[in-house]
Amino acid sequence: MIRPMREELTSAGVQELRTAQDVDAFLAEKSGTAMLVVNSVCGCAAGMARPGIRHALAHGKRPDRVGTVFAGQDLEATARARSYFQDIPPSSPSIAFLKDGELVYFMPRHRIEGRNAEAVAGDLMAVFEEHCAVTAAS
Q1: Which residue, 4, 65, 108, 117, has fewest beta-carbon neighbours within 10 Å?
Q2: Where are the domains of the chain?
Q3: Per-residue pLDDT tens digits for 17-54
Q4: pLDDT digits (tens, 9 = 90+) for 70-109
């Protein structure tokens, strides 16, 4: 049932992080830019977050690394990912953006709900434009 929800991101080049060790390894690289997505089965993940992420990653600049954990499915990985952002209440879906190991942007569920995928993509592309050097493949 959730395979298509995972594949919607992995088919766009997002690295799936299924264990706490995967999350630690992904976030251990401090140089450059990284985006970490907390995926979810909810409607706002399906209709807004995942399509918005795919759209943003396909245009212009993009993060050096993009990873995802799946809330409610990969419990250990999700808990570990959230442990890196202890000052931010748990939220799924959500999107964290880091530059040189520091959190510079966070999009919680309430910034995804009630918006369309294009608005989510627009916010992400603005962050990419400000912080990223890598250009998406044409």
Answers
A1: 4
A2: 3-135
A3: 999 999 999 999 999 999 999 999 999 899 999 999 99
A4: 999 999 999 999 999 999 999 999 999 999 999 999 999 9
d(CA 63, CA 70) in angstroms, rounded, equals 20
Assign domain 3-135 one CATH number from 3.40.50.300, 3.40.50.1820, 3.30.70.20, 3.40.30.10. 3.40.30.10
The pair of structure tokens assigned to 113 is: 């709900």
Read off the pTM.
0.94
Q: Which is catalytic among the residues 20, 34, 36, 44?
A: 44
On whether the CB atoms of residues 126 and 105 are closer than 8 A, the answer is: no
Catalytic residue among 38, 42, 96, 124: 42
Q: Is 42 a catalytic residue?
A: yes
Catalytic-residue membership of 132: no
